[in-house]
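Appendix B, example 12.
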Amino acid sequence: GIKVWVKMEVLRRDARHVVRRALRMARDWKQIVRKREERDDEKLEKEIVYIRSEVRSTVEANRNLTSYSQIREVIQNSNDRVDLILHYRIPYPRYHYVYDETRELQHVDGSNCMELEGHILDIPVSHSRT
C-alpha cells in the first residue's frame, strides 16, 4: 500500500543523499585533507579515485536489494563509513582491534594485520576481560 511506497521513497532519498555526500567528499577531498595535513597531489588523486570507485561498487553491489531492513542497514553503514573517513582523513577501511588479557593490541582473529591489508573487514569490536 501507500505506507510501503512512502517507506521505500524515504529509503531512495536517503540512498541518494549518502551517495551524493560521498561524491561531494571525493570532489572536495584535497581541501578536506589539507585543512589538517600536507599530502602530495599524487597520493590525494589516488585516494579520490579510490573513494569514487568505492561509491560506484557499493551502489552496484546493492542495486537489487529489496528488503527494507537490508537497504536501511547499507545506508547506515555507508553513512558511518563516510563519517569515519571525514574524521580520520583516511579513505581506506580501518581494522577493528581488541585487547587481550595482557592488554597488547591484537587483531580480532589473531592474524597478522599485514596479511589483511587492503581487505574490508566487518568485525564487531569487543573487549575481552577473561
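The longest strand covers residues 97-99. Residues 2-88 form one domain.
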